[in-house]
Amino acid sequence: MRKIVLALLAAVVFSGVAFAQSGYYIAASAGYPGAAIHFGIEDVGVTNLDARINLGYSYVGTSALSFGLDALYQLDVDMSEVPVDVYVGGGVGATFGGSFLIKALVGGSYGLAEVGVENMSVFVEVGPTFSVGGSFGADARLGVAYAF
């Protein structure tokens, strides 16, 4: 467990050089299996690639605090007249109870500037998860983000 925590922290610290001129956002989300707060950094060295740190709490099944790191890539998808940004990603996470998780996700973000609320967006994400212990699961969340 300690190796996982150190690896996640090292990834965040060493990639800080790439974050120097990127935008930041904070977010909160809830869904299955829990709720989380997120800190994200946009365009981390590659256009359309974001990095996000998560701190969450699982309220389904075994209750536990969790943390993780995600990479999100914004796709160039034409959504016609619907101003939704579509992205895919994946990440790793761990609970303070000792389990390690790998996940993939697809999501969409709707900017609220269309309705007069600048720097805010709502998002939805879904995807499969795999616990290193051998079990498969799912992750689904609805959230709100503020860019600064």
| Class based on secondary structure composition and strand pairing | mainly beta
Specify the number of helices. 1
Helical content stands at under 10%
Query: In CATH's first tier, which class applies?
Result: Mainly Beta
Q: Per the principal axes of the C-alpha atoms, what is the gross shape?
A: globular
Percentage beta strand: over 45%
Q: Quick one: biggest sheet?
A: 8 strands, antiparallel, barrel
Which fold name fills CATH's third level, the topology? Porin
Radius of gyration: 15 Å
Overall CATH architecture:
Beta Barrel
Order of helices and strands: HEEEEEEEE
Gap from first CA to last CA: 33 Å
Number of strands: 8
Tell me the strand order in the biggest sheet.
1-2-3-4-5-6-7-8
Into how many domains do the coordinates divide? 1
Mean pLDDT: 85
Instruction: Indicate the low-confidence ranges by residue numbers.
Output: 1-22
